[in-house]
Design goal:
The protein is about 40% helix and about 30% strand. By secondary structure, it is an alpha/beta fold. The chain has a single domain (about 5-135), classed as Ribonuclease H-like superfamily/Ribonuclease H (Nucleotidyltransferase, domain 5, 2-Layer Sandwich), CATH 3.30.420.10. A hairpin with a 4-residue loop joins β1 and β2. α1 (about 50-65) runs parallel beside α3 (about 95-105). It is globular, with a radius of gyration of 14 Å. It comes from Cannabis sativa (Hemp). This is RNase H type-1 domain-containing protein. GO terms for molecular function: nucleic acid binding; RNA-DNA hybrid ribonuclease activity.
Length: about 140
């Protein structure tokens, strides 16, 4: 749970290779666990699951920046992505570029931690991502 006065964002992605679509879902909760905002969107493309998760996390952070939610926690169910963001991983890949962009945006939220939560705790954002594929 986020601290009083702060919010937590959960983000997830769903892929449809047949439709060449990526669905993104995000939910923001307060310190009582109440959902205060949700967002669902999609874009066209065929990405690896890891790149799609990174794009979704970047998208969710941009959304929270524009709405000005004071985040203290951003949760994803993608362990590899969370580890690479936490350790500021770098190489010459597109994925590394996305990690850099995520880190740059996270400077807007100086108290925010990026954490991994199991899919069981990420159900709302996952359902939002799946719904975006139907749009």
């Amino acid at each position: 749970m986020p601290k009083p006065g702060f919010y937590k964002s959960n983000v997830d992605v769903a892929l449809s290779d047949q439709k060449h679509k990526v669905g993104i879902g995000a939910a923001v909760t307060n310190n009582k666990g109440d959902i205060v905002a949700v967002m669902s969107s999609f874009f066209y493309g065929n990405l690896s699951p890891l790149l799609a998760e990174a794009k979704a996390l970047l998208w969710a952070v941009h959304w929270c920046m524009s709405v000005r939610f004071p985040l203290d926690c951003i949760a994803s169910d993608c362990l590899l992505l969370v580890r690479r963001v936490k350790h500021r991983w770098k190489d010459n890949s597109i994925f590394s570029d996305l990690v850099d962009q995520i880190l740059s945006c996270l400077s807007f939220f100086p108290f925010a931690a990026v954490i991994r939560e199991s899919r069981d705790h990420n159900v709302i954002s996952h359902n939002l991502a799946k719904a975006a594929l139907r749009l």
